[in-house]
Amino acid sequence: MDLKLRFLIIAAALCLILVETRVSKSTALVATQDFNPPYPKAISDLKEAIVKGLGFQADDFKISGFDLRDAQVGKSVAYEFDVEIDNKVMPFKLLEDVNRWEYVDLPIFQMEHPVRPNEENGLLPKQQFDDQMPVLAPFQLAGPMELWIQDAKDMRISLPHDVDAGVLKKVILADGAVVTVKGARSVSLRHPIELPLPLNRTTNGFASGLLTLAEYLQDAARSQDNPLLSLRIVGPTSLASPATSSPSSRLKLKRLAPGLVELSSASKKRAVEAADAISTVDLQGEATALLAPDRFSTLWPVVSINGSNSNLLGFEALLSSVLGPKANKEGSFKLLKADVSAQTFVKIGFGVEKKVKEGEIEGFPEWRTKPSTVTMHFEVLAKVDGNKVVPERVVQVNPVIAEDSVAPNVLMGNVTMSKMPVVHQPQNPFTL
């Protein structure tokens, strides 16, 4: 054979080998992507946390699911409290029921990209990310107290029109000043406070419970010897004077220092002047009505919460059960932490295929083949915390139910049809 012809044949064979190698590599890559789909880092961390929480051995089970297309998103409000009683700290965490679950494509569900998010590449900008964060419903706060604003650059004050007060880090509410807070993501207590007992006491003929504690806090805040109640507000927030038809009830702003202002009410000053003119005999009745007309109907400092609120009554019953007999005795307890925040929750299902060891499954008949694996279905409720997804509760939603499939001859006692007794049906005169 000619040398040139041999060279052409060898070159053609090498080309075929290279083509087959590339095809096999691309096929393997596609198969790997199909069976092991990539997850965002937040979901991968969630899977690792669930695996540790379930306590399965790495070689005994295989987890599947976590399809982000089936993930449901809901918004709720979480209440966290730390109560200290007799040098024992007891944490409480309450969560309102999620009223609505939706299929929402959250930013944490998207894969990490090295490019800056913008509308051209299909990613949401940061402003739209922030708009998807849940916020608390508008509520009203009453002085005297101080508010520390974490997102000071995004703070707005409306009295009732917007006021350019610069970057506000701290706002002092004078006694009688009431503001409506909008856009806050969380409100928390900055310093522990000590509250007196008994809890269920009667003041002015009114059995108040938590409202009595609120009255004590308000009296302590008005005293010159005690520090003001201090709260921290997180999130782009706006403070506005409540909508009212009386111009005298509008708030006045006073600059005390860079980043520090005080809000006061002109009607409060008039009420104090009127109270000074009242005689000592009438001071206990009329002056109290002028200074605090809703003293025993709202929970200070959140005056927008009525004393008959179901959540408030439920928390009062919970606190009474925790205090026990001490709730009706003289003493005190400390509130170390109080945090109310709007949360985003994710509900997603997944499956676990676990290897069955000898003796783990009982109740199987001897004739039946023992299964080598068992499949369980779970549902995880997780909280979105920034760029993380923290599991809150994992429940088994579809427990395994053993179903026996038995052959007919086994059900009949393994008796052949030839040995079955012949049964003659009664004659029917209408048959031919």
Concise overview:
The protein is an alpha+beta fold and 432 residues long. The protein contains eight helices and 22 strands. It has a domain at 94-322 and 329-344.
Instruction: Label the structural class.
Output: alpha+beta
Order of helices and strands: HHEEEHEEEEEEEEEEHEEEEHHEEHEEEH
Write down the oligomeric state. single chain
Radius of gyration: 35 Å
Task: Bin the helical content.
Answer: 25-40%
Number of strands: 22
Signal peptide: 1-21
Keywords: Signal
InterPro entries: TUNICAMYCIN_INDUCED_1
Chain-wise SSE layout:
Elements: H1 3-35, H2 41-54, E1 61-65, E2 72-85, E3 88-95, H3 126-131, E4 139-142, E5 145-149, E6 156-158, E7 162-163, E8 170-173, E9 178-182, E10 186-189, E11 193-197, E12 202-203, E13 206-207, H4 210-222, E14 229-234, E15 238-240, E16 251-257, E17 260-265, H5 266-277, H6 280-291, E18 298-299, E19 302-306, H7 310-323, E20 331-355, E21 373-385, E22 388-398, H8 408-411
Parallel strand pairs: 5-14, 6-15, 8-17
Antiparallel strand pairs: 1-20, 2-3, 2-20, 4-9, 5-8, 6-7, 9-15, 10-14, 10-20, 11-20, 12-13, 16-17, 18-19, 20-21, 21-22
Helix pairs in contact: 5-6
3D architecture notes:
This protein has 432 residues and is of the alpha+beta class. The chain has a domain at 94-322 and 329-344. Helices cover 25% and strands 33% of the residues. The chain contains 8 helices and 22 strands. The protein has helices at residues 3-35, 41-54, 126-131, 210-222, 266-277, 280-291, 310-323, 408-411, and strands at 61-65, 72-85, 88-95, 139-142, 145-149, 156-158, 162-163, 170-173, 178-182, 186-189, 193-197, 202-203, 206-207, 229-234, 238-240, 251-257, 260-265, 298-299, 302-306, 331-355, 373-385, 388-398. The strands form 4 sheets. Strands 1, 2, 3, 5, 8, 10, 11, 14, 16, 17, 20, 21 and 22 form a 13-stranded mixed sheet that branches. A 5-stranded mixed sheet has the order 4-9-15-6-7, with no helix packed on it. A hairpin with a 3-residue loop joins strand 6 (156-158) and strand 7. The longest helix has 33 residues, at 3-35. The protein is elongated. It starts with a helix and ends in a 21-residue tail after the last helix. Mean pLDDT is 75; it is low at 18-36, 113-129 and 270-293.
